[in-house]
């Protein structure tokens, strides 16, 4: 998540709030290299309050820029 957010030129929150007993929900618009994309994120936390699961849904689906940039970034750290 930290790397993805570093790609954002700007970010505008539409909604952010707790979700259930152990979750947090965000709905925001971000811009990456001039491309606008929407995102909904659900974070669930474990008993210690640490992020346990993160689900992110970027829109429009035709915007593959973030996926490509993340893949390129982490490809160099993948085991051979």
Describe the structure.
With 80 residues, this protein is α+β, with helices and mostly antiparallel strands. Helices cover 21% and strands 50% of the residues. The protein is built from two helices and four strands, in the order αββββα. The protein has helices at residues 2-7, 65-75, and strands spanning 10-19, 23-32, 35-45, 51-59. A four-stranded antiparallel beta sheet has the order 1-2-3-4, with no helix packed on it. Strand 2 and strand 3 (35-45) form a beta hairpin. The longest helix is centred in the C-terminal third of the chain and has 11 residues, at 65-75. 1% of the residues are buried.
Give a short synopsis of this structure.
The protein has 80 residues and is of the alpha+beta class.
Blueprint (SSEs and pairs):
Elements: H1 2-7, E1 10-19, E2 23-32, E3 35-45, E4 51-59, H2 65-75
Features:
80 residues; alpha+beta; 4-stranded antiparallel beta sheet; 4 strands
């Amino acid at each position: 998540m930290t790397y993805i957010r570093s790609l954002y030129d700007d970010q505008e929150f539409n909604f952010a709030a707790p979700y259930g007993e152990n979750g947090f929900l965000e709905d925001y618009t971000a811009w990456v290299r001039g491309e606008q994309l929407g995102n909904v994120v659900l974070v669930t936390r474990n008993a210690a309050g640490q992020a346990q699961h993160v689900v992110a849904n970027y829109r429009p689906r035709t915007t593959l820029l973030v996926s490509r940039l993340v893949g390129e970034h982490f490809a160099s750290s993948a085991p051979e």
